[in-house]
Design a protein that fits this description.
The protein is built from two helices and five strands, in the order ββαββαβ. The longest helix has 9 residues. It has one domain. A five-stranded antiparallel β-sheet has the order 1-4-3-5-2. With 75 residues, it is of the alpha+beta class. It starts with 5 loop residues before the first strand and ends with a strand.
Amino acid sequence: MMTDKEELLPTYGDLMSLQDFIRYCKEGYFIDYDGIGFYSDGRVFWRDLVARPSDMVEDKVKNGPNFRYVIWFNK
């Protein structure tokens, strides 16, 4: 059963592992102004769990079995 803030992954956007997203953010490939990311389990993502590049750089990362991926949407 899905919650109201949970959505199936769309066919657009870039799905990547959380580890890759953290590395890309720390290397400067993604910044907060480029778009928006959301935590994902690879099947769904949560609109209320934003994965901000600045948080990744500052090691403010959500951990857990459901947070193995990030789906990124460019502006």
